[in-house]
């Protein structure tokens, strides 16, 4: 398998993460780099979704990916092999989330020249990552059908901080008691402005809508 | 829906969680109460598994359940309605895990007289709960088929602290690229002594094996 860069990131020494996140956001704006923070449970399909999406947009904008995991580099390698784009692995050393300083440590290892969009695949966890502003322009998350439509009731903060909820694995809807209307209703309870897009990363269904959302986001933000 | 007790637990003030966990374990041993700590990702089927299992063992031993969640009390209510046993809800106030002191706060609200087994359903999270000894005799976890067989590679600590891994949702094996042999191999990499039991909580398949494991565990421990 192809080698990828693996970065061991250290716990932030910054007590005031919000300020640090704002500073990072301004800095990235100055360099024309849009940062998306993508969160989800373990095994919701973040990596497969990214591969499908990046292959739809990589000829229109330049994309790089930072894959955060406690351990292993399988995801960063998968993305590099399947899309050819710049992909690095961040090891969080047991940490359950990324904050702005940890995100900055990752970005320091990305060749940002000419990059329009960096996607940060956060640690698989519906709790802690929601508590830390990474400096991203937007937060997005993936909820997969097998997890159930009740997750916004149990993980309120995650759903309230996300601007976009991708509901993945729609191909297995017939085999699970997942109610898409209830899911939309529960997401809206937490964040009335959040957009919900059902997708199936495996078959590619709906992924075009996520790709369009991303392209529009990056373009609007660049022209602001 | 039936009402259940909802306990708002507070963050532990004990710096030395391991000592506190040992103290709780001894105390519970003195009272003849076996505590099992059950962990998993969000949506892996902990509650459904518990309902099926408890209905198989509740005539043999007396069981109580503590359901920990950031928010909502749907799980505690479901268990109470479906099994008739004592079931309380712990709200962690945003906390991503339970430590020994938080577990004790929960146990203070369970009528322990005559109870043989308390099952703690930890917060849905493969990272933080693994870092804190709750005072349980054993840690068990559920990995569900849709999450993928590679999870022991990405969440090493969780798999290394668990004595039992239930692989749930085997009914959907035909629809996912899940390799049970690889799963067993990856689990063994983290903990060579961990037992793996494939189950389907929905259909009940394999749940009897988990029930037998629990009955044997509680009996062996009582006779130690």
Q: What CATH architecture of chain A would you give?
A: 3-Layer(aba) Sandwich
- Sketch the topology of chain A as an H/E string, one letter per element: EHEHEHEHEEHHEHEH
Low-confidence stretches of chain A: none
User: Structural class, judged by helices and strands of chain A?
Assistant: alpha/beta
Shape of chain A: globular
N/C terminus separation of chain A: 41 Å
Which range does the strand content of chain A fall in? 15-25%
Number of distinct beta strands of chain A:
8
CATH top level class name of chain A: Alpha Beta
Q: Domains counted in the coordinates of chain A: how many?
A: 1
CATH topology tier name of chain A: Rossmann fold
Please count the helical segments of chain A.
Answer: 8
Helicity range of chain A: 25-40%
Look at the structure and name the CATH superfamily of chain A.
P-loop containing nucleotide triphosphate hydrolases
Please state the average pLDDT score of chain A. Answer: 93
Oligomeric composition of the shown chains: homodimer
Biggest β-sheet description of chain A: 8 strands, parallel
Name the strands of the widest sheet of chain A in spatial order: 1-4-3-5-2-6-7-8
Radius of gyration computed on alpha carbons of chain A? 16 Å
Give the largest interface: A-B, 34 and 35 residues
SSE order and pairing:
Two copies of one chain form a homodimer.
Chain A: E1 5-8, H1 17-31, E2 34-40, H2 46-57, E3 63-69, H3 74-83, E4 86-91, H4 100-107, E5 117-121, E6 138-144, H5 151-154, H6 156-161, E7 164-168, H7 180-190, E8 195-198, H8 207-222
Parallel strand pairs in A: 1-4, 2-5, 2-6, 3-4, 3-5, 6-7, 7-8
Helix pairs in contact in A: 2-3, 2-8
């Amino acid at each position: 398998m192809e080698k990828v860069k693996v970065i061991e990131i250290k716990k932030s020494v910054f007590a005031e993460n919000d300020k640090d996140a704002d500073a990072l956001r301004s800095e990235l704006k100055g360099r024309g780099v849009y940062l998306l923070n993508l969160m989800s449970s373990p095994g919701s399909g973040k990596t497969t979704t990214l591969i499908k999406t990046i292959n739809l947009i990589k000829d229109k904008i330049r994309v790089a990916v930072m894959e955060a995991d406690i351990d292993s580099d399988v995801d960063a390698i998968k993305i590099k092999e399947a899309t050819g784009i710049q992909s690095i692995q961040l090891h969080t050393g047991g940490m359950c989330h990324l904050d702005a300083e940890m995100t900055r440590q990752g970005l320091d290892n990305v060749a940002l020249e000419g990059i329009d969009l960096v996607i940060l695949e956060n640690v698989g966890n519906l709790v802690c990552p929601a508590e830390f502003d990474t400096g991203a322009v937007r937060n997005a998350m993936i909820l997969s059908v097998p997890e159930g439509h009740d997750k916004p009731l149990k993980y309120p903060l995650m759903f309230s901080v996300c601007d976009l909820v991708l509901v993945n694995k729609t191909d297995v809807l017939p085999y699970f008691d997942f109610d898409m209307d209830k899911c939309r209703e529960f997401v809206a309870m937490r964040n009335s402005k959040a957009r919900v897009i059902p997708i199936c990363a495996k078959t590619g269904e709906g992924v075009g809508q996520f790709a369009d959302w991303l392209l529009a986001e990056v373009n609007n933000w660049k022209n602001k």
